[in-house]
Each structure stands twice: as C-alpha cells, then as structure tokens.
Amino acid sequence: MKKIDSPQSNPSETDSPLSRRHFISWAGAGTAAIGAGVLLGKTPSALASGVRDRSHVPSHPGVPPGWANAFQPSSTLPEFPVREAPKMGEKIHEFTIELGISVHEIVPGVKIHAFTYNGTYPGPEIRVPEGDWILCHFTNRTPEIHTIHWHGMILPNEMDGIPNGTQWGVGPGQTFNYLFRAQPAGTHFYHCHNMTNLHVQAGMFGALIVEPKEDLVKKVFSYTREYTLLLSEVDTVMVERQMEEMLKMMGTMEKMNDDPKLMKEMNGRMMGWFIDKKAFLKAVEEGYVPPYVSAQRGRSVAPNFNFFLINGKSYPMTEELHIRSGENIRVRLVGAGASPHFMHLHGHDFWHVCQDGTPLQSPVRLNTIPIFPGTTSDIIIQGTNPGMWHFHDHSDLASTNNGVFPGGMMTMLMYDDAEEKGVRVPEIVQVSS
Amino acid sequence: MGSSFANQAQPVPVPEDQSLSPQVNISGVGAATFNVAHSLASGGKTQAGMNFSDSALVVGAAQRLSTLSGIGSMGLGLLTLDDTVSGKASQLFLHQAFVDFQAERFEALIGRSDNPTAHVVDFPTIRGDDLVTLTNPLDPYSNGKNSEENRYSNVTSVTLNQGLQTFENFHAQHLIDSAGIGTEQGINSFGASFEYLGVPGMEPFSRVPSFGFGYEHFTTNSGGKSGLNQIYLGGVVNLNTSVTNRWDLRFQDVVGFGSGLWAFQSVTDSYQADSNSLAASLRYLSSPFGSPGYQLALTAAGKNYFKVDRSRSYGAALTGVKRLGQGFDLVAQYMGQYRDRALAVAQSSGIAYEQTFEVGFVFNFDTTLNLHLSPRRSILNQQHQYVPN
Ligand SMILES: [Cu+2]
Questions:
Q1: Is the peptide bond preceding residue A260 cis, with omega within 30 degrees of 0?
Q2: Contacts with A177 (C-beta within 8 Å, 6 or more apart), sequence order
Q3: Does residue A301 sit at the B interface (CB-CB below 8 Å)?
Q4: What pLDDT digit, counting tens, does each position of A367-402 carry?
Q5: Beta carbons of B278 and B272 less than 8 angstroms apart
Q6: What string of DSSP letters covers A291-320?
Q7: Using CA atoms, how far apart are residues A130 and A51, in angstroms rounded to an integer?
Q8: If you measure CA to CA, which chain A residue comes closest to B384?
Q9: Domain ranges of chain A
Q10: Cα gap A21→A18, rounded to integer Å
C-alpha cells in the first residue's frame, strides 16, 4: 500500500496502486458486520422476489445471431436483495483507497495539483464479478471532505456516498468502509460526491466494472481485448485556485475545531453556514455580506474547460486502442465529467451494445456515439478496415489543448497488422495546426 | 497588380507562441484624505488641505516559462507624491519598473522596485511613508524631499527559498541619490536579508506569522572611514489566537553605524548619522464574519542618535479603518511627531511638534486578466509539489 499523504516524495503517479488485498471467503462468520459501520436490515420480500429472468428469448431482426435480451418490465429490480449482509460462502473483494494530493501531468508541460485516489488521475479501476461483495476502506489524507459515490450501483442507501445525505463526509484522516454487493453487472464508475464539479475535475473518479456471470456481449462478439475510456474535462485554472482556497478554508476550520474558543467564535458565521433562515437574516442585519453580493466574485462562476481528457490524459498522450484485422474489441466509454462528448470513429461503424451497464434490447450500429455526463456506453469495434484511425469527440472544442488544435479528447485505433495488410500510414504526433 | 508575386516571396511571419498570452495584472490604491495640520512650534499655525499622495497604479504581466519550470514577469508602477515635494506641482514617482524570474527555489529581480530593507514590516498607518523617518531604514543619499526614496530603489536581487517559507535575499542597490553624493547610477549599497513567512492563509493561527532581519552596507563614508551600515530586524507577533477579534503587534528596530557625523548640516546628515530607531504598532482587527470589518492601530516610534546632541525624536499615529465594502475603506488618522532642536532644524524647518489629523477614503483593487498563474506562495506549492501554474 502506497502512502499518499506526502506527495512531495511521490511526485509521479504510481502504476497499479490499487491494493486488492485478498479475497475473503466469507465462511462461518454469519452475518456479523465486518467493520462497515452499518447495519444492513432484513430483505424486504418484494425485492427478494425480483430476481431477473435470464432465459433467452428470440432476438430482433437484424441483430447479430445470439443476441437475446427482450424487454422485461420487472428487470430493474435488483438481482440480489439490497439490504442484506454477506452470507457464508460469498466472496468479499477488499480494496484500500487512500485519497491524497499529488501532481498530475495532462500533457508534457501541463501539470496540475490533483486529488488522487491512490495517487492516480483517474483512480484505479475496480473490477469484480457480479454478485460478489465490495468492501472498500476509503481513507482521506487531505484537509478537505470527500466521499466515494458508486455510480450506477444498486446498493444500500447508507453506502451511496452522499455527504450530509447518506453519510457524513469523510473528514481529514478519517476512514469510511463501503460495503455492498456488486450489482447490476456492466460498466459503471465511482466518484467523489462532495463539491462534485471541482473534485471530479481534480481527479476523483475511476472505473467500476462489474463482470456479468454470463457475458452476452462476449458470447455474441467474442472479443479478446477491451478498453475503458473515462471521458472528462478540466479547467486547470479553476482547479488550482479552488483547491488552494479550499485548503485555506479547511485549514482555518481545522484550527477552529481544535479550540473551543475559536469554535464559539465561528458559531456558524465564518463559512457562510447558518443554522436556519432566521440566523442568516440576523447575520445580514449585523453586517454579514453574503459572497454573492460583491461587485465581482474574483473567480469564474462556471468552469472554462481547457483540457479534455481520456483517462486523465489529453492527445497526444492518450492511450491508443489496438486491434487486428478480424478481431473484435470492446470499448467501455464513461461520461465521468460535466460535459457531453460525441465519440466518433473514422473508417468504421461500430456496435453500441450496452448502455449504463445493461445490454441493449438490440445492438445499434453507429459511427458517432453521444456520451452524456453520468452515462456509460459499451461499444464493439470490429477490425474491418486496417490502418490508423482517429477516434475523438466530434464536438471540436474538445479536440484542443488550451485552445490549440489538435489535442484533447482524441485517440487512435491502431491496427497491429496494418503494415502486413498493405497500409503504410506513418504515426505522426501533431500538437500544433 | 503584379504584387502577388512579391507577396508570395514574403516570409510568413510565425508568431512565437500562438497559444498563450500573458497573465495581466492591474492593481492600484487610491488614497485621498482631507487634512488638518497643526504645528505648535510655529505659534499654532493650522493648515487644511487635501492629500492624495501614496496613490498608486501598477501594471504587471506574467508568463509561465516552459524552460526551467519558471515564471517570468514584469511590473511598471507609478505613485503620487506629496504636494510639498517640489513646491506646488503634483508629481508621479516611478516606484516599480522591474523584470523578474521565479523558479521553485529562487527568484531574480532587476529594476526599480521595493527597497529590500524597507519592507520587513509594513506598519498599519494610512500611507507607507507616514512617520517614515522613524519607521523605515533611511536612504543616506536622499535629500529628504521625497520620502519614497527610502522605500524604493534600483535593485538587483537574488532570493533563495526553502519550501517557499524561509527566504534569503542577496542584493545590490543604487539608492536614489537626490543629495548628489556619489555617482549617478553606480551601486552604492548592498546587503543580505532573511525572512520567514508562515503558511499562507494560516497567519492568524501562528504566534509569529512573519519576521526578518538583515544587514546593509552603504559605500558612502559620511565622515567615517569605511562606509555606513544598517542592521534591521522586525516581525509580527499575534497576541491572541482569534479570527474575529485579532490583536497583533508589529515591531522593528533599525541601527545605523559607521558615520563620523557629530552634527547635522542637512537632512541627509540626519539620514546618515549613527542612530537607533525602534517602532512598534499594536493593532486590533475586528472581522465578525471572517472578513475585515474595522481596524484600530496605535503606532509608536522613537529614534535617538548616538553622537549628535539634542536630536531625539518620537512619533505616534492612531489609525482607524472602517471597511465599507470590497477594498473600499473609510480612514481616519491622528499623527504627531516631535523632534529635538537639532533634528528639527535639519528635518522640519525648526518645527518641534508636527501634528496632522486626516480623514478620507482608501480604495484598493487588484484585478487579473487572462488568469492562469496561481500565487506562487500557495499551500499547494508549499506543502505539495511545486507547479509553476
Ligand atoms: Cu472530494
């Protein structure tokens, strides 16, 4: 386990930092809580009965042979009862995630301070089989408050990661243990849910892949390689400014919390927090000036994104997708940021096979797929046209680095066998038009 | 017609950098007060007038530099002078005209800028040059007409730092030589100083948020044998730990030695002669909602000369500031200074007591265009890795 609390000695991001300690085979311990700090109630019988019917039904016309996923009105009911503790014989996958502040390089010459889960931007990929348990020890080594929200998971309310909603935010030095069963299957992601706009821009997101017991996509398209592309964007100026502001604010609060006298001084007045509307109005009467009253706020209200990222990197530092003629690859696209992106592949059509984790009623043939914030789309690219092909956000603002084309949310589909197929396209790295 | 061929032959101008225009910073202070001045020694003569000196405008530009991971910047600034500096005319004084390079561990500056000896402690009076002869290390080359000569100079400095928290400054200066003592442009002063600055934003919580000390050598002899010297030290001490009701104390001591002067023939002599100046300021800041509401400060200072008789001086200022809104303050100040006979003759036309009461407005602003560089001394840069953004 790499400690992240002193990023000065850990300037570069570590490879594969996720400590996936071990599988706990949950034998003989009954339903004892395992430090998750939450009592999981008994299963309501209505939910318990909502087990999905996986029997295959005939596919739609024009759909690749074998595709079967007919409309089932009851199928949003979770496969496994939600409010239930792990049982004997069930597998628990234990993860340790520490949040720290480190420096992340987007492209050579552009570095930002970032909030990083285990030192990487984005955080490590979590991948577990459907129905197994995830036990995640999340420790916050920053002065700010954070959580992990498990986006798309059907889990107990207490594990949803909403600060001042489903839990108290995880404060400096605190640990919160998230425990839930991995369901439903498919491509999902996780992210911080405190000041989400800033914290996600600062790097607090990562892929969460729940492998289905039976992979319909694999059965039909028999892919061997797969890629997960987390799409996001960042206003580097905003992140740097607001992280600094936050450090000062939280430093002040920490000092005040340490001292009863200062605590009393603060009395809800310092941070723009008031116990109720009456207290707020009284403060205004006594001279409190709400921040929105100032002639100029001194910082931009809305982010002005200047870098567009695939897995935390901008072109030309994005990772390429590799394929061979005749091969299928699966690409999991995740809308982790705040803007929609329209991923377009040159020289190919592809199959849109899953949306928000779940297989579609029938695959859809596209060459451009919109990825909206909070959504995930899985596509299958078939190796039908050897060469080196652009795969990029067709909203051209996102094909830039700091306003300079080309850059941003762009990568390449590279055929490993392009040359033997007679295609000789040189790999040109272009960072200026 | 016929020009197309010629145009084709023109080289295409390639802009050096098409992507980044520099960050531009415009900051300023408008300080304007209505004054009533009273001099006891001149038979109770009272004068009223307007004072808008020490108003300033500074324009700066800064750019992140790809090589050496640094930041390059420049600044150009003008300051209004006291109406009395040269008779009736109002004047502008160039107080900033510098180019600066900053990297993680050092900073180099060349040009007209803050005199490195003069800003160890800024006392909470309305204007930077209030009680200047008591609260500032003085420019021994100044004829005394322009008090800003004690505060700004032509300087070349290199500042090393450790964690952007401790700073060592090594500098050579050309102090403005209005008295015409030495060469017009040559180096006439050099020295070194140390400064400590606490964690930015956390100043209210440390006992000593900042302090510094330094040594300066002046090449002029002033009747002595090997030039003049100054040793200075100062700092800020928090008297309580509070955010809403803050008490702090500023102090500074300046010792000048090496002069052979036993009497004053001019103002300049009084800036050179061996002396000790001690200044302190007690400040109360009320910030009921975490941002400044009002401030009261009492600044008191005294100076004595080691060799010149009847030359003691005392001064005090009681300053009140009420914040009316974003950077805009209502200010009021009573200031008085007493000089013994010999010093009064040299510095204040023989007037022993000078008193001023003033009331007015001060407006501070600071705006940044094309924002892309964060303050260098940030918590992020200090406690995490340095990023020149
Ligand atoms: Cu967070």
A1: no
A2: A35, A36, A37, A135, A136, A137, A138
A3: no
A4: 999 999 999 999 999 999 999 999 999 998 899 998
A5: no
A6: GGGSS--SS-SS----EEEETTB-BTSSPP
A7: 14
A8: A8
A9: 25-70, 225-235+305-415, 251-297
A10: 9
* Of B133, B26, B77, B123, nearest in space to B321 by CA: B123
Residue holding tokens 């605590």? A263
Complete domains list, chain B, with CATH = 24-369 (2.40.160.10)
A323 shares contact with chain B (CB less than 8 Å): no
Q: Which residue of A has its CA nearest to B370?
A: A237
Task: Read off the pLDDT of residues A132-168 as tens digits, 9 standing for 90 and up.
Answer: 999 999 999 999 999 999 999 999 999 999 988 899 9
Q: pLDDT confidence of B224, banded at 50, 70, 90? A: confident
Strand arrangement of the beta sheet that strand A126-129 belongs to = A126-129, A205-211, A186-191, A149-151
A82 and B356 in contact (C-beta within 8 Å)? no
Q: Which residues on B lie below 8 Å from A111 (Cβ)? A: 387, 389
Q: Taking CB atoms and an 8 Å limit, are A112 and B387 in contact across chains?
A: yes
Residue pLDDT, tens place only, B69-90: 789 999 999 999 876 545 444 6
Q: Supply the pLDDT for residue A44.
A: 36
Does the distance separating the beta carbons of A248 and B200 come in below 8 Å? yes
The lowest-confidence range among A57-71, A245-259, B42-56 is A57-71
| Residue A239: both structure tokens together | 């992140």
CA B243/CA A426 separation, integer angstroms: 63
Residue of chain B with shortest Cα separation from A238: B372
Instruction: Give all strands (DSSP E) within B3-130, no chain letters.
Output: 23-39, 45-51, 56-65, 70-80, 92-102, 106-114
With an 8 Å Cβ cutoff, are B201 and A270 in contact?
A: no
Gap from CA of A115 to ligand 1 centroid (Å): 7
- Looking at residue A10, what is its pLDDT? 36
What's the ipTM? 0.76
Per-residue pLDDT of B16-25, as tens digits, reads 555 567 889 9
Residues of chain B positioned with their CB less than 8 A from the CB of A270: 243-244, 289-290
Residue of A nearest to B205 (CA): A255
Q: How far is A255 from chain B (nearest CA, A)?
A: 7
Fold that domain A225-235+305-415 belongs to in CATH = Immunoglobulin-like (2.60.40)
For A324-351, how does the pLDDT look when each residue is reduced to its tens digit (9 = 90+)? 999 999 999 999 999 999 999 999 999 9
> Taking the model in full, what pTM does it have?
0.80
